[in-house]
Amino acid sequence: MVVGSNPVQMPVLTPVPNQTPSEDYVTEFRVEIYTPPYLQGNAQRPTNVVLSSLALTANGSRFQVVFNAPAGNTVCKVVLYHGGYVTHSLHMNHRMLFLDIKGYVAGASRQSLTVTMPPNKNIAQPGPYVVYVTCGGVPAVGQFVMVS
């Protein structure tokens, strides 16, 4: 959802001229639901994603991902995503790692992939991550994991 308005403590229902600049504008109450372009139209998402483990280690180890891919898929990827943290109005330390996969069969609806984790903790620092499976650029619902 996308929401926003003027930064005053109380809603402003009618403009108050010659007050503080933020009170010159009426408070906006509308809410917009954002749908990314890759989910518009008839895009199909990968479904039924199952990971062999939700506790992963950044030492080059492997884990299995099983999922249903959309019909006619030609490219699937597995992404390890860390959302970072917010401090002093700065959002820092994002990480998005495309992991090596084996076992992908183009066009098959049921996929079973062997995924290799990053080689060390310098690349994937310990903490919470989300694993996304994407087919044709369209992601499945993310799976939360803990990387050590």
Automatic annotation (TrEMBL):
> Which residue range or ranges hold the Galactose oxidase-like Early set domain?
46-147
SUPFAM superfamilies in the cross-refs: E set domains (SSF81296)
Please name the Pfam families in this protein's record.
GO-like_E_set (PF09118)
* Protein name in UniProt: Galactose oxidase-like Early set domain-containing protein
Organism from which the protein derives:
Stereocaulon virgatum
